[in-house]
Amino acid sequence: MEEKVKIVEVGPRDGLQNESLSLSVNERVEFIQKLIQAGVVFLEGGSFVSPNAIPQMAQSDEVWKKLQKEKADISFLVPNQRGFEQALSAGIKSIAVFTATSETFNQKNIGKTVRESLDSYREILKTAKERKMRVRGYISTVFGCPYEGKQDIQKTLDITKELFSMGCAEVSIGDTIGVAHPQQVEKFFEALAKNFELQKIAAHLHDTRGMALANILTALRVGVRIFDSSIGGLGGCPFAKGSSGNVATEEVVYLLEGLGYHTGLSIKELFIAAE
Question: Which of 51, 218, 235, 268 is the most exposed place for a label (fewest CB within 10 A)?
Fold first, then answer.
């Protein structure tokens, strides 16, 4: 096929934030550099959140200082205006914002309703656009919520539309607790394809129930060409019980390269980084 598939590595942020051990700045930098050596171009480097809430992400500004000359798009999550201001002060070039389809999850995660979270990002994205920063949007609990159960696809469509209208260059559709099934994945991404350009839509699929690769194959058939994954299957979401099980980057690359897709990543180097 020789068709390109974009892999967004989330291990250094989404992965590490759900692990009990907090790595030092230098350890996180070394981790990211090994991923870049494996060919990773797009990755999450950390987040500007309260160190009291997520100590694993403390000193993300220091991580960026040591990595800013790397030839990679290193994104940092910003949950609010304060986090965004910290990112601006650090000279971050690429940020990510996030919300959810589930009101309950969003309240427990960032203490805001879905509407409030989207409204809070409007000014952030306006400033980011003026500063020529790259912005990615994440939507959590798309396929199911630990508190509310199955989610309405229309919520995903509405939020995706709003994130794009605010200036997100890419929107990642998240199976936060790993409950998605191929049939559901097909239905959701076909609906997204009818309303948006799929080349701007990413699939963030967890492997909690061992369904991630099957779901990725399904999304591929629909036309998705951007996938989030975490080296070694690190992490999940600390605010969703039972959500551990990010799909492992090395497994995704092995699958895609075997099918003839081009990821630009070295499986051998990925295994080194994973270990």
Answer: 268
